[in-house]
Amino acid sequence: MAITEIDAPTLKAWLSDGGEIALLDVREAGQFGEGHPFFAVPLPYSRLELGLADLVPNPNVRLVLTDGGDGTAARAAQRAEEAGYRNPHILEGGADGWRRAGYTLYAGVNVPSKTFGELIEHRRQTPCVTAAELQAMRESGENMVIVDGRPFAEYHRMNIPDGICCPNGELALRIRDIAPDPSTKIVVNCAGRTRSIIGAQTLIDFGVPNPVFALENGTQGWFLAGLQVERGASRRHLVSPPRNMRGLAANARSLADQHGVGWVAPEEAHGWLADRSRTTYLFDVRTSEEFAASGVPGFVHAPGGQLIQATDQWVGVRGARLVLLDDEQVRAPVVATWLRQLGHEAWMLNGDVAAAAMLSWQRPAAAPPAALPTITPGKAAAAMAAGSARIIDLRPGMTYRKGHIAGSTWSIRPRAAALAEADKTLVLVSDEPGVAALAARDLAEAGAKDVRQLAGGFGAWHAERLPVAETPHVPSDADCIDFLFFTARRHDGDAAAARQYLTWEQGLITQLDAQERGVFFPMDQDA
Known about the structure:
The chain is α/β, with parallel strands linked by helices.
């Protein structure tokens, strides 16, 4: 099947024609973060086949792949076609072609979700307090609580002193346990801006009687105000069932209905999976602990707050159906309300986990790449010393800098084929067998005859006290295409990086064109 190349105006029109479309940017993370089309979803070529089925579960969907104009998209389209995708296309000229057509390339990651958060603040005038105002409230002993709307790992790394971790997806369910007194002020924070805004507005929309505020600029604003963050905190919301669950569920349903969220019976949603003309995603928005204990096979775990904040991590198809599940019909309806405002066709499964578990939701999964033969560190070292082997390190570039096998070469799948040698054993170092297997396939097609994976990876090599090296500047910044340097140091005490990040986030909505802005708040457009 010939793979069609389309120009930027054609793609721009497709993004608004009402049909399903998956626009995947197959460049590596650093390249994607430097500038990409607004609706592009990142899936690096280095792990394309590992993530394609989850991001784009329907092989019949229109699939458009874009790159930096270097041919990577063409290779990715070939791989997608080999995996059974029937409608792949390539964006002519990649990101540069998009820019030359007069369209904006957006820096950063999770751009639609972050832009949405900024739009919510402008649209709803979400109340906020500055870091200085919050510190004054703390010092005066005001009746207040600080709620951190991020996942626990982010909170544990650093947080506002006295803050309690309650991810945004849990807020509607848990806030009464955190602040039972309706006169208690609630301040919601995140690392930057948008999760603070969404968390605070969630509580306001849910009808919480307390005064609710977002912390302006989050932990970065706190740091820039000269205040100290707390590290290693472990305060978390309660996990016991809240009181008045029936009232909370009724409130959540009313809110979801106001925003056009659909309610679907398990049997009907199950039937959607057989409809190859549409794409259906199944998400369990509960906590990781709940999902581990009673997750329904076929449903993907997507914590509610993060599904709002980083939708493109889970959803690769615009125009798809998103079906959400929880066990009490509070969290999922609230999350679906936000997804609906984000422009997605969000549905709430009208039943609990037990009801969902009565059906089989499994869909065909992509076969994992074939495992590579392995070689022990000792044999690899001997072969390298004899000149009969070359070691290629596929781990992240910044990881390689900190420590790697002496004499090894750093590479990444899009560039690995250039290292193919027919007369040597190529030994791949990777933390993920699948990543090594994909690179090995490209190497074999480029002429390599003997490709193996280092048994136990770099850790095994180091444990045997074989030679290692550190190269703080190799690979160079330019070569580290898998790392986004853009404001990377904003959480490491770099004030300039923090200011740059906040300026970028606040400037997102000024870059929107009519098509990009028009995807949000579809209920308003339907009215």
